[in-house]
Specification:
The chain is of the alpha/beta class. It has 17 helices and 15 strands. The chain has helices at 10-18, 26-36, 51-64, 83-96, 114-121, 131-139, 156-161, 165-174, 190-199, 211-216, 230-241, 253-265, 279-291, 301-304, 324-331, 352-362, 387-390; strands at 41-44, 74-79, 104-107, 124-129, 150-153, 180-185, 204-207, 218-224, 246-249, 270-273, 296-299, 314-317, 341-347, 391-394, 420-423.
Length: 424
Amino acid sequence: MSFAILGLCDELLQTVAEQGYTTPSQIQTEAIPVVLNQRDVMAVAHTGTGKTAGFTLPMVQLLSGGDSPQPCTVRALVITPTRELAAQVAESVQTYGSMMNIRTGAAFGGVRIEPQIAKLQAGLDVLVATPGRLLDLYNQQAVSFDALKILVLDEADRMLDLGFIDDIRHIQTLLPAKRQTLMFSATFSEEIKSLAGGMLHDPVLIEVDTDKNIVDSIKQKMHPVDQERKSALLIHLIKKYNWQQLLVFSRTKRGADTLVTQLKEAGINAESIHANRTQYARTRALDGFKNGSVVVLVATDIASRGIDVHQLPCVINFDLPYVAEDYVHRIGRTGRAGTSGLAVSFFSEDEAQQLASIEKLIGRKFERDIVQGFAPSKKPAVVLSDEDEEYGNFEPDPPRRKGKSKGQAGKPAKTKRKHWKEYL
């Protein structure tokens, strides 16, 4: 199947081809025609499925034939839970709308609001914003929704998790009742159903890429280790196997910063990304991670939304998440859209409840593989006889279909990645 049969115009087909995409992903195949028909959509899809292109491409086409935006107005609004995701989506819209004269802007906290107000003064076709900054702009009378035609809620489940539900419901009251609404979520919980029921009109339900599919596509390992020795174990694995471009998840902001300090003291270039860091520092850390100058990026669950790296080889759960569903979100950063990936988790005795919840969610029990020299002191177990047999060469497989689109996740990597070590 090609993009040509989805109903996209010639300009968008040319842009898609220039980006190196020839075959649409499942979410794109199902969502694009529905959005072009101006139906409301409730789509359940994880990151890495190409969902961003699934709504940006048809949205750009629908906007291309309309009148130019008036001062301070926006014709389409995309709401995201995090700054990083807002910047990523805005970049996607700008890329796909490059031949369509689509005016795009992003608005989020952590940076000065004045440049965002200035950009809105001329009017925008598409505004991508986080809820808090969007309300700030509205309260300062910097943006009007009178001309709004399309509303997109991206990663709606994460917005609920972060407590944005009241902001979203308030924003809804400010928007025209007659509009097209698209909602994308990684889960279809009762809370999401309730939110969708109040915002969508006769929506088309699209479900792709279930939790089980994500879990089954990724190699997963669980290493028992004392909590105080987790950083030493991580340093050991990185140095012994020359791991590169490693995304590490920490439960807390303080823990992320502490781990970065320990890694740097060990001679490993690392940066953290979390809500307490300035937007400039977060952008610099993410850019360094993408270009390979930062070997390890330590992130909290909230800040990780919007991290988009093509064929990310491996993720590390330095701490197990309190919410089992976050485990699936985390490991979904690797093994994206048809490629294999590796997820490694460090597990201490005080995380037994989190581990049990994860195992219940994914329907499988993990083998506890102890790395030689790092056996936990409280619960000794059989140590692997030969650690090297567990870590063979690991490198992400190429996509199953040549040219398969993965949205922004499918862009060619700019840096050559070294071989990884695979668990057999």
